[in-house]
Amino acid sequence: DTTAAPNFIRNQIREEIEAGKVTKIVTRFPPEPNGFLHIGHAKSICLNFGLAEQFGGDCHLRFDDTNPAKEEQAYIDAIKEDVKWLGFEWAGDVRFASDYFDQLYVWAQHLIREGKAYVDDLSPDEIREYRGTLTEPGKPSPYRERSAEENLDLLERMRVGEFAEGGKVLRAKIDMAAPNINLRDPILYRVRHAHHHQTGDAWKIYPSYDFTHGQSDALEGVTHSVCTLEFEDHRPLYEWFLDNLPVPARPRQIEFARLNLNYTLTSKRKLKLLVDKNIVDGWDDPRLPTISGMRRRGYTPASIRKFCDMIGVTRADGGLVDIAMLTHAIRSDLEDNAQRAMCVLKPLKVVLTNVAEDHEDVYEVPGHPAREDMAVRQVPFNRELWIDADDFMEEPPKKFFRLAPGKEVRLRNSYVIRCDEVIKDDAGEIQELRCSVDFDTLGKNPEGRKVKGVIHWVSAKHGVPMEVRLYDNLFMVEQPDRDKDADFLEHLNPDSLTVCQAIGEPSLAEALPESRFQFERVGYFCADRHDCLNGKLVFNRTVGLKDSWAK
Ligand code: ATP
Ligand code: MG
Ligand code: MG
């Protein structure tokens, strides 16, 4: 059921350790700070930090910050917070690929001196054209045979900003006929006149991902450089740099299949579009699969880590993972750990005609049916109550076991009541129900008849008003971005958010931001991190009660 699935990288490392091939492992999680992290990144985080935890190694947090135009300090801060919130600790300080810009530049000069790199004046379009295709070899650039002196001079002038963006690049000189297109003289540096969040205006050139990643791994002593399968074709290039540069260590790249979840986008670029277009309420909107959105929705770190264990790590593309597996992980956590409470989402007034105006009982109710460590709740009972409008039907079908005219129902933790009268306004709208209590039913069954239904309720005198936000999938189709040529925004669910003005039992008045509850018979809810301010109560529905995860 919820046990961990196979993880081939973990098995491989265990074997290496047992065989004495490696003593201490070093992994890294290398996000680009161009957006917030999402559930796909959580898989990579749990894998990299999890391996280090399990084998007594280190995991580094390294920002892959070679593209300053798209990067921001705010993303760096959010990513650090997400990793910590998930419960992981990076070894040493946070690192940046930009910490290695000086060293990378020296290595670029090294390749030039060895005749293994050159400055190319072809335009980006020409470079693409010269590169060839899968079936046709590329052809050499006319600038490929420049002398080392000229290349060194041009690279230095690129660095200080003498050339326009797109005017010149530095390329490795490998093989324009290589079957793997990544080896057809890949780009090492581009001219970019951009301010960088770490290095300021020091550089007018920025290294490519390929020229940066493996060397950064080597400089940090990373042993296992774990990445997603789209980098498999880059591995020969990763190794070419390690073979041709005087690097201090020899990391190994290992690829695994990325996570794809149904009804969910796992692409920062697409999530950013939803944020920029104000389709959602920022990067941590509870409908987004961002780690901070899931946090705001009420996911626990343990549930996300559990989910990542359940999906496992393979090299085979696992297709679409069912989001029901993710909701299963949080539901079973909350089932065990969330305090219970009663909350009425659609309040309908009930007046108990045989209860006196000043009558007041206070029931002591367990915070959780199986958790004696949780505080007991004080639940007041009075003449006027709120029940949920959906728990009453004027003309009920046969199997309706809740309240109806002339019918009985049990109030949870309290008496059995009977509905005697339905009060309506002039327009025929139901205003309130007049009911009577059978005082002989507290903690015992009524005499001579069966009452099947139990409904939740809140004392009208003591109930606390609150806003409750019900979330549904943001997209109506399983794979909103499946058709690359269509606009995924067409699949937005217009009902992904429903806001209710609800009334909760008084114990909820003290709810701290981010505290989690089961609203009995309704679902699991979390007090909003941001909006529970100045006595205002806002709850986000994390998940419903029903589990649809088919094991
Ligand atoms: P996106 O396309 O959303 O921008 P990315 O891969 O470009 O994702 P990075 O910041 O470079 O974003 O990702 C950091 C790490 O997280 C990388 O090692 C990447 O392979 C991994 N990662 C990203 N998305 C997923 C995913 N869906 N499943 C597993 N790992 C992922
Ligand atoms: Mg990336
Ligand atoms: Mg990306």
Automatic annotation (TrEMBL):
Residues 24-325 form the Glutamyl/glutaminyl-tRNA synthetase class Ib catalytic domain. ATP binds at E32, P33, N34, H38, I39, G40, H41, A42, K43, S44, T228, R258, L259. A motif ('HIGH' region) lies at residues 31-41. Pfam families: tRNA-synt_1c, tRNA-synt_1c_C, tRNA-synt_1c_C2. A motif ('KMSKS' region) lies at residues 265-269. Residues 338-438 form the Glutamyl/glutaminyl-tRNA synthetase class Ib anti-codon binding domain. The keyword Disulfide bond does not apply. Monomer. Belongs to the class-I aminoacyl-tRNA synthetase family. This is Glutamine--tRNA ligase. It comes from Vreelandella rituensis.
